[in-house]
Amino acid sequence: MQVSVEATTGLERQMTVVVPAERVDSDVAKRVQDTARTVRLDGFRPGKVPVKVVKKRYGQGIRQEVIGEVVQQSFYEAVQQEKLTPAGGPNVEFKNDKEGEEFSYTATFEVYPEIALADFSTVELEKASAEVKDADLEQMIETLQKQQAAFEEADKAAVEGDQLNVDFEGSIDGEAFDGGTATGMDLVLGSNTMIPGFETALEGAKAGEEKEVNVTFPEEYHAENLKGKDAKFNVKVNKVSVQVLPELNEEFFAKFGIEEKSVESFKVEVRKNMERELTQALTAKLKEATFGKLVELNAIDVPSALIDGEVDAMRRQAIQQFGGPDANIDPNMLPKEMFEAQAEKRVKVGLLVAEVVKANELKVDEDRVRSTVEEQAATYQEPQQVIDWYYGNQEMLSQIQNLVLEDQVLDLLLSSAKVSETEVSYEDAIKPAAPAADEEA
Q1: Rounded Cα–Cα distance for residues 208 and 206 (Å)
Q2: C-alpha closest to that of 92 among 80, 104, 79, 78
Q3: Sign of the four-CA dihedral 245, 281, 431, 138
Q4: How buried is 253 (Cβ within 10 angstroms: 0-12 exposed, 13-18 middle, 19+ buried)?
Q5: 432: how many CB neighbours lie within 10 A of its CB?
Q6: Residue limits of the PPIase FKBP-type domain (predicted)?
């Protein structure tokens, strides 16, 4: 077998493979003979069909089947021989597949980039720290109460936090528009459910009042025909209701799966959850910043096949997140451009993290894997069952192992970088990081 490789553009390679005629023709002849022994044709006894008849009727199909297998086997042998690492399947084009002649084809594919990691000791990073203070705890408990709050009708002027039941009709230049009308809709002032200015204009309103609300649709509004347009809404307030927070009692605690009977015990559990969330948020942000610097420091080409694969995965995640696991939506309906920049960044991070693991011969710390599993299991009522489930499910356990290995890479990078610490509030710590310019676009 003869193999020649040409570097075309970037990571793309074009490999020409020439296979001796004997390798293909002998396999075809053997398969024709095997078929003759088993095929059933009218006019012939089983096992007595002449080879010539079988070859005439089935020969072309058999040859294509054999050629497909030869391409698969020879491609693997060729990339092994040339020490290439394809990133995705090849695009194969036959050059000669005539019987009795050398079989040849070209395979075009991308390879993984060669990576020489830059010195990470030049990187400067900021590591945030925070703690759950008593005020944060009280605010969280109030938030939990608001989630379970009821509304009671009241004879008063509406303020932020009150719920209004309203009818409204919207118009632009005197013409009604789709989605601009509602009857008997409940609206909590300050929830930012409506476009800017709508809710604040209703503050001070009482039941039975009618108000004219003038607002402007944002330039980034999802409906193209409404972007930046001035609109008028005629609003009727049917009733005003005030928010009534539930008491901190056993019934309230049970709604959050907490069996504790005292307020103090409930606070202990809430604080634990907040501290767990805080640790996860701080680690995620630090990892994002560190891996972002790793990408900045190491300019690498990325195989388009890997980006396409990541885009497809992100499409499926988006469908599952917004449509649920049973959503009957074709992921390909989502434009590739929505995910491409983030997909490329993810692939770069994956390639560079893998190179750090390889260069430093890192192995998964199984003790950290165990503690990570136990930490996740602690949030459930039967922790041991969750632990057993992870260790009985290799796919899920592998996900934890990969996360731990990522954390080990993070530790290694931080140990060589210039890291300064800064203290932030709990609220700022758990707030999602602002997207980078390319991701935001």
Answers
A1: 6
A2: 104
A3: positive
A4: buried
A5: 8
A6: 161-243
385 φ, ψ (degrees, to nearest 5): -65, -40
Residues 27, 24: Cα–Cα separation, whole Å: 5
Here the tokens at position 11 are 């990571």
* CA atoms within 13 A of residue 149's CA, in its CB half-sphere: 18
Tell me how crowded residue 63 is: count the other CB atoms within 10 A of its CB. 20
Domains for the chain: give ranges and CATH numbers: 2-110 (3.30.70.1050), 120-132+257-440 (1.10.3120.10), 150-244 (3.10.50.40)
Beta bridge partners of 186: 165
- Calculate the CA 137 to chain-centre distance: 31
Query: Residues for the chain: how many in total?
Result: 441
How far is residue 144's CA from residue 270's CA, in Å, rounded to a whole number?
A: 10
Is residue 261 within 8 A of residue 250, CB to CB? The reply is yes
Which among 111, 112, 121 has a CA at the least distance from the CA of 294?
Answer: 121
Summarize pLDDT for 385-438 with one digit per residue, the tens. 999 999 999 999 999 999 999 999 999 999 999 999 999 999 999 998 765 444
Can you state the percent helix, strand and coil of the chain, rounding each to 5? 50, 20, 30
Among residues 320, 257, 282, 313, the alpha carbon closest in space to that of 427 is found at 282
| Cα 404-407-412 angle, rounded to 5 deg | 130
Nearest to 73 by CA among 23, 31, 5, 22: 23
Q: How far apart are CA 146 and CA 252, in angstroms?
A: 12
| Residue ranges for the chain with pLDDT beneath 70 | 260, 323-327, 434-441
